[in-house]
Every structure is written in structure tokens, then in C-alpha cells.
Amino acid sequence: MAEEQNMPDTGNENPPRHKGGAGKLIAVVVVLTILAILLVPSQDPEEPVSVAPTVDGEPPSLLAPDAAQTGSAVTPARPETSPEPGPGGAARSLIRELRADPPVDLERAFRAGQAFEAEQRRDDAYLMYFFAAREGHGPSALLLARQADPATFSSDGLLAAPDELQANKWYQVASRSGEPGAAEALQALRSRVEQQALAGDQRARRIMLQWK
After folding, report:
1. Nearest to 31 by CA among 41, 39, 42
2. For 109, what's the count of Cα atoms within 13 Å in the CB-facing half-sphere?
3. What is 11-74 written as a DSSP string?
4. pTM for this structure?
5. Which has fewest Cβ within 10 Å: 82, 124, 145, 147?
6. What is the C-alpha separation between 90 and 129, in angstroms, rounded?
7. Residue 154: Cβ-neighbour burial (10 angstroms; 0-12, 13-18, 19+)
8. Is there a contact between 54 and 62 (Cβ–Cβ < 8 Å)?
9. What is the pLDDT of residues 52-107, one digit of tens each?
């Protein structure tokens, strides 16, 4: 009986596990995790600048911000013609612009002449009419002819004095272009000058010698 009491316990129960090694392992993992977090580089605190995409998904062009925002292309504006200095400078600038864009818009030249005339800018008006008439514009030629014709001359017009030679020239241009009334006015002018020449007017005779 005594021997049985001194025998060690050999039951099937498992011995208790040792907890000291597992605790150390957990501590090491925690330390490594903290170090890893501390070693990660911090992100830039500033927020990145975002560029709103256009309709097609592409970022807008920095060279044409207005076009990118509106989704339409920018068409360069045509530069305005700088008027030349001095009398008739505005007309000369406009004539240069018209010549640079063929075919020449003679109707625009005629309307510009009317606008200048309404503003009492007689030098500009005359140059615009002269330019258009020389290019064969009937209304401009007829207007200049009537300005020069003694029968229709006005001191408030574009010319300082009547000029039968200029009237004859422009009536012919207007008549060739089919302008109504031009042929009749030309014939009336020639008849008056011929009558004056027959009456002994030397000036009228010289005019007739220069007629074409």
C-alpha cells in the first residue's frame, strides 16, 4: 500500500502548457508592427490640384482655357485694320483690307463711302467711291459722274468744282456696267459741251479734244 502511495501520477491528463514563450513572441510582433508603421513615409498634406476633364474625358488645354471649358475651339479674331494718319487714312486702310481678301467686295466699298459721306468725311468717301468705280462698280461711277457734272454739281458734294472730263469718264464706266440713266446723262453732257464749243467757248473746245 505504501508503494502505491509513493508512485507518481500517470493519468491521461495533459500537463499544463508553458505560457512564458508565447508572450514573448507576441511582444516582439507588436514591436515590429509599431516600427513598421513609424517607418512608412507620410503623404503630402497638400491635396493634389485636380483638372476637370472635358466632355471627351481629356484635361483642358492650358493654351486655350476658354475653349476647354466651353468645349469649343477658339478662332483667332481677325485683326482690325489700323487707320492711316491724315485725310482719307481710314479709306486707304479699308481699301488695303479689301484688296487682301479677293474677290474685292465692291458693294462693301460703296456702303463704306456712303457712311463716310454721311459723317462728312469727304476725303474718305471720295476715295471709297473712286476705288469702287475704277474697279467697274456702276453705282459708284454714276455717283462720281453726277458729282462732277455741272448740271448736277453741288457745292456741298465731294468735289470743289465741276469737271466735265471726270463726268464724261465716270458716265462711260457706269454706262458700260449697265447702270440705269448713265447713258442718257452721258449724252446730255456731251451735247451741252458741243453747243458751248460751237458758241465759241474755247474751254469747251479743249474739253472736246480730250474726250475719248
Report:
1. 39
2. 31
3. -SPPPPPP-HHHHHHHHHHHHHHHHHHHHSPPPPSSPPPP----TTSPPPPSS-HHHHHHTSPP
4. 0.61
5. 82
6. 13
7. exposed
8. no
9. 333 334 333 233 333 333 343 333 333 355 667 778 899 999 999 999 999 999 99
CB 133 within 8 A of CB 139: no
Q: What is the DSSP string of 62-131?
A: SS-HHHHHHTSPPPPPPPPPPPPSSTTHHHHHHHHHHHTSSSP-HHHHHHHHHHHHHTT-HHHHHHHHHH
Characterise 30 by phi-psi region: left (phi > 0), alpha (psi -120 to 50), beta (else): alpha
Residues 95/132, Cβ–Cβ less than 8 Å: no
| Model confidence pLDDT, tens digit, residues 162-205 | 999 999 999 999 999 999 999 999 999 999 999 999 999 999 99
